[in-house]
Queue: 4 jobs
Job 1
Amino acid sequence: MRILILANSSSGVYSFRKELIEELLRKNEIFIVTPDSGKCECLRILGCKVINVSMDRRGINPLKDIKLIQQLYLNIQIIQPELVITYTIKPNIYGGIISRILKIPYAVNITGLGTAFQKEGFLKKAIIKMYKISCKKAKVVFFENSANKDIFLENKIILSDQACLLNGAGVNLDKYFLTEYPQGEITKFLFIGRVMAEKGINELLEAMKLLIKDGVKAELHILGAYEEDYRDIMKEYEKKGWLYYHGFQKDIREFIQKAHCFVLPSWHEGMANTNLECAASGRPVITSNIPGCREAVIDGISGYLAESKDVDDLYYVMKKFTKLPYEEREQMGIEGRKHMEEYFDKKIVIRETVEGLYK
């Protein structure tokens, strides 16, 4: 079968869907249409045929989006796929509508609802309407958390028999293996993600300031590219000696191994892969009590949940963690690993995805 994958980032496809693509390549020819964010050659090495397009994943520029729709339509006509698989909002909507028009079977992946669903207003109504059009004939719509699925059903975007709930993209338990828990008097917190307000970076920095003010021996290590301009504030806190900004890193595992606790106070997620990867590595996780984050943590057992956008609550659970003895922290990490093995094994997620595609 000739399968076309549409996504807004080659790095996202490679990082989180590599194992699924390898499985699909066993019996299928895979084409990928995506912007080049550094992993196109890696996808080609896997055996995929990759075509680059320009895509502004966050912007709402009608002229740019019209050009994107034209590019997607042209490529779909040239490739003539027998199945289209889409990831992220613009490929989901535009790719879904084009596939529907051309009567090509297609599968949609809801990897998160994005900022537009956080506020009532014209934009949310418009996106719901576009999703209704794009998903109407989808053979399957995959969700990474039950709350996102419920929103689609409540808004009558899809029918219940179209929905398939997965445990996110899953986590590769061989790549992210249980590592020895680190010693040290200074608690090393780790954040991995795009540096932007919606990932809770403001709340995290404020909570850290409160910890330092209290005399808590703690550090914050941040990995990820700037999505918004935090350079000056990062430099200010680096000079104070408690923040370490490492920029974007191709391999995050050595940073996870050195950390005592991973923290992700995000505002919204489909399923936060970094929570899964850190838990699988045996690190306690502090994250937001929201869909897409809370599933990764057994509160009080493998980590702690904090209310989203709440500096005081985040500070409270982070300080609570710093008071735990070594043995309790280590056990938290072990419990997190068990939780990943039971519910988030990528091999299981891939099997369920393939079953959904071929149903």
Job 2
Amino acid sequence: MIVMNSRFLHKTGAVIALFLMSMPLVAHAHAPAQTFTEGGMGEGWWIWPLALFFVSIAVGFLAVVSGTGGGVLFVPFVAGLFPFHLDFIRGTGLMVALCAALAAGPGMLARNMASLRLAIPFGLVASTASIFGAMLGLALPVNVVQFSMGICIMVICVVMIRVHNADYPDLPGKDALAAALSLNGLYTEDSSGETIQWRVIRTPAGLCIFALIGFLAGVFGIGGGWAMVPTLNLVMGAPLKLSVATGKIILGVTDTSAAWVYLNRGGIMAMIAVPSILGAMLGSAIGVRVFSRIKPKVIRWVVILALLLAGLRAIARGVGV
């Protein structure tokens, strides 16, 4: 097993940002949109990337303290506050979620908190579906995507309200497919030093749900962390920490596949992506430092309320209001 240097992992976002800075500041010839904003760049264009940097800090902070993914916050917030074309926002949302996953996933894997056996089949299904989702999302009219995204955000809010994760779910039943794929194992709980034996059930249902998650991630650019952890934990019975860590690995594979579709079609612009990635990672670092001194439940309800407002705004823009 290859153990990666932790400093390298924490610099992942900066490396991706530098890569994006090497790209042209205008879209590819086959880009879904040819202008920086929906109304053109105009004078004072530099104000928007600067403002985006500070908004991304807030998104990264809220993503950590509320336990939600960065992509699911970034896309509706930025789409509601900024005049950027939605295709660029969705492509950048995937990059933001991807950076968060790449920064955390390998470290969790090195600590034996994530399971590659569990990540590979579900990552394959989700990443394949995300490619088709990204292709469909770029082909649909913007107003249709706006309206559909608003509905999706409302559903996500309902999931966040109703879902309560369990640390060690013990779901009854057996799963022949999980046994054939050896989806079981051991991991050590650092807080207690206890070795936890785990297994999963309902693998066919889990694969279908992950296909849907990947498809939605590609269409809307919202990542999939908001649904991957509840699916692994509550539907399939994996321990909560194992679900979180494995979800990061799967998220990295899924968002990479969808992001390449946006990148190939010119849906990722450096002037939007770079301040977003740097801001989100800075906000995440701040959130980690203050996480123990705030009440996550309060922040979680603030995020849910903000998502509800963003979802309503997306629906309104989708119908032309």
Job 3
Amino acid sequence: RALREQQILQALEDLPPGVTIPQIVQFTYTDVDPSLHPVAAWSVKAHLLKLEQEGLVEHVEPDGWTLVRPTA
């Protein structure tokens, strides 16, 4: 779980601001069959909401996410 969270943070660092959950899933879940990506999106959303509460990421309209502060 911690590894996946780190991968999501890395995706937000590497991808442009305002990246969407499906884009994060595609970047992060390379080891998962694409037919399971809709399920993976639920996990990414849960991670993003946790990270948002911690002040690390923020939701930008309409469906994007961005890193608030660098993780390194």
Job 4
Amino acid sequence: MSAFIYKSLSVLFFVLMSVCIKATGDHLPLFQVVFFRNFFALLPLIFFIYFLKLNFRSINNFKLHIMRAFIGITAMSLFFISLRYVPLVEMQTISYSSVFFISILSIFFLGEKIGYRRIIAIIVGFIGVIVILKPTSAIFSNYSILPLIASLFLSMAVIVLKKILLTNNNILSVWVFTTLCTLISLFFYNESWIWPNNFDLSLMIASGILGFIAQICLTKSFQLADASLLAPLDFSSVIWSFFLGYIFFAELISINVLIGGSIIIVSVGYIFYRERVLQKQVVLGVNKQF
């Protein structure tokens, strides 16, 4: 199976995971959803690690792992809240802004340099975000700002992950992250947590398994081809989000999302192109690592 097929499956499974989370609605406490999402991903992940015979003792730099877990669970929680109130395609499109944040943060934390072309692409991309958000004096009451904030935290988590992967295996790093997020979410346990009905429980189990499969497919695709070569396939998530959002939730795309999303996709696409020209390692915004 080619790298393109693995990457395409990864994008699809990540979107299907989002569909499962969104389908639970808002009747389950947020951190209960976070707990189930991570817990049910741990089980197949442990078997996969055993199958690959990975050495847990090779895990190091625990401070960065813990930092990534707290930043990542914040991003995860904000994305999950977004799924409750924001159309699927809109949330997916805004999440691409993490690519812009990563570019900016890489300057300060990774010592990377960006040229004027990248700067222009970032500015144009944020114009697309503004078109979608339609900022007014009540912008902070607009749920659409949640995936933007989530993307900021996601970009910080990715920056930390880049440092972690210098000395750690990717699959083991996912295991550490998933384990820590499972434990952290338990600290928010209270009397509002309920045992989900069979339908919601099935969705939670599916979200964990789908997230696990998506991550494995993503890792496999990167083993077979360069990340920058696979980057354009990320845009298929917008198409999947549109069709699945319409089929399952009767969501329609607004003119603001259509225009702003097009601007964002063009900007992100140009950044991916420049990364390939400069032969750098692209960090994909849609690769949420959870």
